[in-house]
Each structure stands twice: as structure tokens, then as C-alpha cells.
């Protein structure tokens, strides 16, 4: 099989060569011009069949969605929009596609909502082709970034016995029968009889295990799926999402922020260089979508312009206390535009976060030193006794994309916090050992992978940047 991918063909100088291409028909005009796509690029290859070359039944089978194998000669194209095309010498139909039934056989551009219903086919559209090539590139760039800096990629477990965030949003993993499970003397389900001999769940974060790795390798990261049974049906939440969590020994909060900012910029820079074509397509798509909105609601910058801006400007850095002050002083607050009230101690709602990044600073913002009562047990207590060394990165159009902190490395303080939050220390003895044996200051963060894909692609619904979204009441594919 000496097949050449369409992207390679179109970007090279193959004129005069004999090639084999395979792909799916995007359109067929005048019984002569086939637009063929193989997913390597949104640019279709024009394949020309000579009039009279194919019999009538074969011509009828060249429908949108059908798969073809074509051999032919690469020639300079006379048509506009492409440099090269292929003159077919042989054409084989690999798989027919019933034009009457094919869900993507549409005259108008299908809506994103409609495509979500046929997520098993939507990869074949230009929009999703571009999105998932960019998603792939970002995943690759993540490994490249950390590998270059000597981080060790640590595979943290999917099944755990802990709830790292202590938020009680875990999916349980069990092999116990639903009808008549074993019970303890007290009548409760007896997880001692379960597969692992205890109650287990899908991980909400690989951080705790990441910390164990950092205490040996100095710098590690995990990148894998995480699961949260939070019942928030929003455009920013998934029940199954991917997270990147670096964890670094000898880092304080500022080192952590510096790494997170450099990391995000690296990812953006990577796709700007390597996925230009797809970004230009998505930029155009977004511009068309924006045109449908009333003038006042349109974003000021195009997608590529926004990415360039983020690359070339420092993230704003403010404390939580400053953020609350800005919100209280804002016209939005004074005119009662916020749905949720603002006061020191609140867990900022997305409307507040978006005000800060979109209206006030107009750039990504790192908010630090949150009240301890709204943050996880492992964050380092500040000297004021009220706040912890946390940092969240908020991005325009999205809100929170990163959550991180310097960790509490002092055993008594950590145990005290766990006690206050009713987290049993016995079950996390393995974790506490890192504070007993050679503890060091350390820090880390979690970047929501789909959130950064949203940001880079300019998409607005998180269901559109993961191949198969899991959200409340939805596990179709
Ligand atoms: O802020 P979170 O909950 O932090 C942690 O899990 C820490 N253990 C990370 C660490 O310090 N190692 O989640 C981190 C990020 C959020 O900022 C957000 O981008 C993303 O994960 N995230 C979600 N993305 C999609 N759907 C959800 N339900 C998400 N929940 C969090
Ligand atoms: Mg968070």
C-alpha cells in the first residue's frame, strides 16, 4: 500500500508522480470533480475523473460519505484554491454511503447541537477535523514541554480509595451485586467483601500520587482522565475530563505560577506554529459565529489575535482579597448585575471570574491566596491563618482553567487541617508519609485539558472539544 496522505500530497511537490490516495467523498460535482478528504487536513484533494471514464452505475455510487481508493497522476490544478489535483486512472469504491440516509448529507452547514447528536460521525466535518487535530497537537506539546524540562511522566491510578479533592463527587467502583449486597452487622453495605476489600472510586485527581512522585523525582506530571460526579450541566463541566497535573519539589507558589504561565504559553505557541491551517479555519468559523451576535456581545478579538495577545503579554497576578475589592468596586456590582452576592469569603462564581478577566483586566488573571475555608485540605496555610497559598488561573471566555497551590508540607498543620475538615488521617497515611520522611516545600497545579482546548480553538461548549462527552444523563457513545 503506497498510499500518500492528502496533506503530504498537497504540501509537497508531487506534480507528475503516480500516487494512490484513499479517503471519503466530501462532494462530487458535474460527474467529474471529487473533493476527497482523509482527515489529514481540511483541504480536500480534487480528484478529476475523465468524462466517459466510469460507467453510469459507478458514477452513481460516488456519493458524499462514500470511501474511495484512487490511483492517478498528480497534476498542476487549473481550478482556484488548490495547487495540485489528481487525475484518476483507476477508481475503486471501498464503501458505499447511502446518500438518502447519511446524516451528514446536508445542504446547509449542520449546527453544533445537531452534530453532538451524531458525535460518532462528526469527526468528518471540517470543524471537528480542525478541533481534534488541535487537541492532538496540544496533547503532544504537553509531553514535549515537560520532557524538555526533565519532568517524569507518572501514570497515576484511575481506581483509587481516596477523594483527593475531598468534595464527595466520586463515582464508586464496585463489583458488589445491587440486589442483596453483603451487609455488616450494623446493616450497612460491607465493602470489605468488595473486589478491593474496601470502598473504591474513580480518581478525581492524580495529585496525591503525584506528590509521592515529586518527593523522589523532584518534578513529575500526570496526564490522564479524571472523573467527577458533580451535577453541573454547564458548558464548562464534564463528568469525565482529562487533566494535566505537574507536581514539583522545591517550588513555592511563585515558582508554580511561573511554570503554569510558561506552560500555557508554550502550548499556545506550539499550535500557532504547527497547526496554523486549522487555527485559521477555526478563526474564520468563530468570526462567522460572532457575526450572528448583536454588536455589543461580539468579542473584540479574533481567535488568532487573542492567542497572539496571550502569548505576548504577562498574565495579571492578584490576590483573592484584591479580586473581591475589584468586584465590590465594579459598576456591575453597584448596578446589581451579578446574580450572586460578593463578599470576602465567597467561592467566586463564574460571572465574577469572567468579569475580572473579560471586563476588568481583559487578559488571563492568576488569583492567589484564597480563604482556606473554600479550598482543599492540602493547600499550604499562609501566615495570616486565614488564607492558603492557592492559585487559580482564569482565562477570558472560559473562567478557571488552572487550579493549583503550594502544598502544606508541615505535618502538624496538615493533620490539623484534615481534622478540621473531617478527613480521616488513617486512610491517607501513605500520603502523610511524604511529610514524615524528608518533607520539602513543594507545589503543583492542574490544567483542565478540555478547558485549554476550548480556549485555543475558540469553541464555547466543552462537549465539542472531547470526542465523546460524558455529562449528566448523557453517556450515549
Ligand atoms: O481546581 P481543580 O479541582 O484542582 C485539582 O483537581 C487539583 N488536584 C489540581 C492540582 O493542584 N494538581 O481542577 C483543576 C482543573 C480546573 O482548573 C479545571 O480546568 C479542570 O481541572 N476541571 C474540569 N474540567 C472539566 N470538567 C470538570 N468537571 C472539571 N473540574 C475541574
Ligand atoms: Mg478549582
CATH-level-4 superfamily name of the largest domain = Bira Bifunctional Protein, Domain 2
Q: Which CATH first-tier class of the largest domain would you pick? A: Alpha Beta
What's the helical proportion of residues? 25-40%
Structural class: alpha+beta
- CATH fold assignment of the largest domain: BirA Bifunctional Protein, domain 2
* Molecular shape: globular
CA-CA gap between termini: 32 Å
Describe the structure.
The chain has two domains: 6-102, OB fold (Dihydrolipoamide Acetyltransferase, E2P) (Beta Barrel), CATH 2.40.50.140; 126-169 and 204-464, 2-Layer Sandwich (BirA Bifunctional Protein, domain 2). The protein is of the alpha+beta class and 477 residues long. The model has no long low-confidence stretch (mean pLDDT 95). Helix content is 32%, strand content 22%. Strands 6-10-11-16-15-14-13-12 form an eight-stranded mixed beta sheet, with helices on both faces. Strands 1-2-3-5-4 form a five-stranded mixed barrel. The two termini are 32 Å apart. Helix 4 (126-148) packs across helix 7 (276-291) and helix 4 crosses helix 14 (449-457). Bound molecules: 4-amino-1,4-dioxobutan-2-aminium adenosine-5'-monophosphate and magnesium ion. 4-amino-1,4-dioxobutan-2-aminium adenosine-5'-monophosphate binds next to strand 11, strand 15, strand 16 and helix 14.
Amino acid at each position: 500500500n503506497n498510499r500518500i496522505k492528502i496533506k503530504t500530497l498537497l504540501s509537497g511537490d508531487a506534480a507528475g508522480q503516480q500516487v494512490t490516495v484513499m479517503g471519503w467523498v466530501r462532494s462530487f460535482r458535474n460527474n467529474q470533480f471529487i473533493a476527497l478528504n482523509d482527515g489529514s487536513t481540511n483541504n480536500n484533494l480534487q480528484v478529476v475523473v475523465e468524462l466517459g471514464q466510469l460507467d453510469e452505475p459507478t458514477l452513481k455510487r460516488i456519493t458524499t460519505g462514500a470511501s474511495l481508493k484512487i490511483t492517478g497522476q498528480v497534476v498542476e490544478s487549473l481550478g482556484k484554491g488548490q495547487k495540485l489535483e489528481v487525475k484518476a486512472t483507476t477508481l475503486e469504491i471501498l464503501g458505499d454511503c447511502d446518500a438518502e440516509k447519511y446524516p451528514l448529507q446536508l445542504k446547509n452547514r449542520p449546527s453544533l447541537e445537531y452534530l453532538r447528536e451524531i458525535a460518532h460521525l462528526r469527526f468528518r466535518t471540517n470543524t471537528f477535523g480542525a478541533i481534534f487535530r488541535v487537541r492532538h497537537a496540544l496533547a503532544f506539546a504537553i509531553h514535549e514541554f515537560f520532557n524538555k524540562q526533565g519532568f517524569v511522566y507518572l501514570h497515576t491510578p484511575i481506581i483509587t480509595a481516596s477523594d483527593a479533592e475531598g468534595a464527595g463527587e466520586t463515582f464508586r467502583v464496585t463489583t458488589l451485586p445491587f440486589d442483596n449486597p453483603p451487609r455488616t452487622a450494623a446493616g450497612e453495605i460491607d465493602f470489605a467483601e468488595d473486589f478491593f476489600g474496601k470502598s473504591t472510586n474513580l480518581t478525581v485527581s492524580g495529585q496525591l500520587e503525584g506528590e509521592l512522585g515529586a518527593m523522589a523525582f523532584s518534578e513529575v506530571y500526570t496526564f490522564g482522565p479524571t472523573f467527577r460526579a458533580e451535577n453541573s450541566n454547564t458548558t464548562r463541566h464534564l463528568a469525565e475530563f482529562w487533566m494535566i497535573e505537574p507536581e514539583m519539589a522545591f517550588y513555592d507558589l511563585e515558582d508554580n505560577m511561573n511554570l503554569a504561565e510558561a506552560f500555557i504559553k508554550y502550548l499556545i505557541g506550539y499550535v500557532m506554529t504547527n497547526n496554523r491551517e486549522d487555527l485559521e479555519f477555526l478563526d474564520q468559523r468563530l468570526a462567522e459565529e460572532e457575526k450572528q451576535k448583536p454588536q455589543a456581545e461580539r468579542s473584540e478579538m479574533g481567535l488568532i489575535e487573542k492567542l497572539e495577545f496571550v502569548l505576548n503579554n504577562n498574565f495579571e497576578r492578584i490576590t483573592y482579597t484584591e479580586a473581591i475589592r475589584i468586584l465590590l468596586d465594579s459598576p456591575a456590582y453597584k448596578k446589581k448585575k451579578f446574580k450572586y452576592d460578593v463578599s470576602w469569603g465567597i467561592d467566586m462564581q463564574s460571572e465574577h471570574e469572567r468579569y475580572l478577566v473579560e471586563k476588568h483586566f481583559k487578559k488571563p488573571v492568576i488569583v492567589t491566596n484564597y480563604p482556606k475555608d473554600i479550598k482543599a485540605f492540602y493547600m499550604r496555610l499562609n501566615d495570616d491563618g486565614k488564607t492558603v497559598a492557592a492559585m487559580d488561573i482564569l482565562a477570558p471566555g472560559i473562567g478557571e482553567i488552572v487550579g493549583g497551590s503550594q502544598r502544606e508540607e508541615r505535618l502538624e498543620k496538615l493533620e490539623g487541617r484534615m481534622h478540621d475538615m473531617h478527613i480521616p488521617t488513617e486512610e491517607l497515611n501513605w500520603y502523610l508519609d511524604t511529610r514524615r520522611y524528608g518533607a520539602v516545600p513543594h507545589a503543583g497545579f492542574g490544567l483542565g485539558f478540555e478547558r485549554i482546548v476550548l480556549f485555543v480553538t475558540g469553541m464555547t461548549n466543552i462537549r465539542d472539544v472531547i470526542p465523546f462527552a460524558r455529562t449528566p444523563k448523557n453517556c450515549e457513545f
